């Protein structure tokens, strides 16, 4: 069973990584089709959609899989099937209600995002209302789809979730790009119509995923029915108790899932007004696109893999805490923080140094984009830290503090956002996000220290070493970058790609060498280091 579980986890992780990679690189052709105005419109609709979908489904696959796995282990297969049958109705109902709520509140959301059409000539409230309504249709299907994924995962079957995620992303991106291009260049339609098609792609992608899940259900239903015949029938749990348990499982994931979209939503409802107040209303839409869509897509890159790797350690943290094994708990926490920082810090530093070529490769050479990305890149470390510390709080059964830390961080962001934007323009929003996340993370760390009785000294020393190595890597990379830009200007996609490739390979080599010589790599990754050295044909 353990090998099956490991294989399943690998498949699901691989599917998630492929999905995220696809979700990153589609922005290159999409931006070339719709430019700043189009990406701003897209983001005006997608941030509210992300919040709605996170509330409707965040944690559902994990909560349902945890519930079903628990009762399957006890031989109570009928309990999981009972949840699935009733859950279909519940999730369809909640999805339709969420769709109606988003569709009919679209004008309100648009009004919150923009002060008036006259002050922002690039985007009007009617435009934003249209694209919000276009994306809202996906809410009908996605919650129901999440339930099916959770059901399969509860039976240790990760393939359906992984494949459906990838298919959903491929179908969505294909429809998004082809649809936007055809509307603008073949049908000579408006930009609003093109972006509406692009946001409606979320609904089409969900249908593609649902078809895949339906096929898996058809193929595996005989096996699932055989399990029902082995049911012990010793438990009769009411639907009320079932959903109470599901909500307890899902609640922590909801708050972690909506954290980043909520920070983005604060920018969405304050940015244009703050810029207009200082006489920069005409540039607000383009600047918002850079802040909330273009640079944010790049900043998330260092977060995804590091967070995924670190979160694999959380189950062992839970086990150690429940068994009151302080030595093991401290060791697992040490590993989590060190692995997270070892992977995230150099990536964030490198992205900040290579901000100009990175932005040019994905979008175009633009001074504001470079400036915002350079400042925004290190915030990736905070994004990762919040996710992991929130997961640790769940592991030590103190997830209630996640609500407190998130609300505190959002309050800091909300209070400081407008004055900082008025002082520093677009960069002010990044500073406010930084301060909000710092406040939330400090609360999480304080709770971990108090309730897990965790001493931070050892991890702090190691993290200091990681920071020193990252600084050395940064200095060397910057020196190489400065030299290369004297020969090749990062003004085209090809020249920028060459600069990134050379600097990234050289910088990663320096960082890997420092970790190897100090044996820090062995402390963090153990025997995996030797396997990597063998593949790279390095002397052991």
TrEMBL record:
<feature type="transmembrane region" description="Helical">
    <location>
        <begin position="463"/>
        <end position="482"/>
    </location>
</feature>
<feature type="transmembrane region" description="Helical">
    <location>
        <begin position="130"/>
        <end position="152"/>
    </location>
</feature>
<feature type="transmembrane region" description="Helical">
    <location>
        <begin position="246"/>
        <end position="266"/>
    </location>
</feature>
<feature type="transmembrane region" description="Helical">
    <location>
        <begin position="12"/>
        <end position="34"/>
    </location>
</feature>
<keyword id="KW-1133">Transmembrane helix</keyword>
<feature type="transmembrane region" description="Helical">
    <location>
        <begin position="173"/>
        <end position="194"/>
    </location>
</feature>
<protein>
    <submittedName>
        <fullName>Membrane protein involved in the export of O-antigen and teichoic acid</fullName>
    </submittedName>
</protein>
<feature type="transmembrane region" description="Helical">
    <location>
        <begin position="46"/>
        <end position="68"/>
    </location>
</feature>
<feature type="transmembrane region" description="Helical">
    <location>
        <begin position="200"/>
        <end position="218"/>
    </location>
</feature>
<dbReference type="InterPro" id="IPR050833">
    <property type="entry name" value="Poly_Biosynth_Transport"/>
</dbReference>
<feature type="transmembrane region" description="Helical">
    <location>
        <begin position="494"/>
        <end position="514"/>
    </location>
</feature>
<feature type="transmembrane region" description="Helical">
    <location>
        <begin position="403"/>
        <end position="424"/>
    </location>
</feature>
<feature type="transmembrane region" description="Helical">
    <location>
        <begin position="88"/>
        <end position="110"/>
    </location>
</feature>
<feature type="transmembrane region" description="Helical">
    <location>
        <begin position="298"/>
        <end position="318"/>
    </location>
</feature>
<dbReference type="InterPro" id="IPR002797">
    <property type="entry name" value="Polysacc_synth"/>
</dbReference>
<keyword id="KW-1003">Cell membrane</keyword>
<feature type="transmembrane region" description="Helical">
    <location>
        <begin position="430"/>
        <end position="451"/>
    </location>
</feature>
<dbReference type="Pfam" id="PF01943">
    <property type="entry name" value="Polysacc_synt"/>
</dbReference>
<feature type="transmembrane region" description="Helical">
    <location>
        <begin position="375"/>
        <end position="396"/>
    </location>
</feature>
<dbReference type="InterPro" id="IPR024923">
    <property type="entry name" value="PG_synth_SpoVB"/>
</dbReference>
<keyword id="KW-0812">Transmembrane</keyword>
<dbReference type="GO" id="GO:0005886">
    <property type="term" value="C:plasma membrane"/>
</dbReference>
<feature type="transmembrane region" description="Helical">
    <location>
        <begin position="339"/>
        <end position="363"/>
    </location>
</feature>
<keyword id="KW-0472">Membrane</keyword>
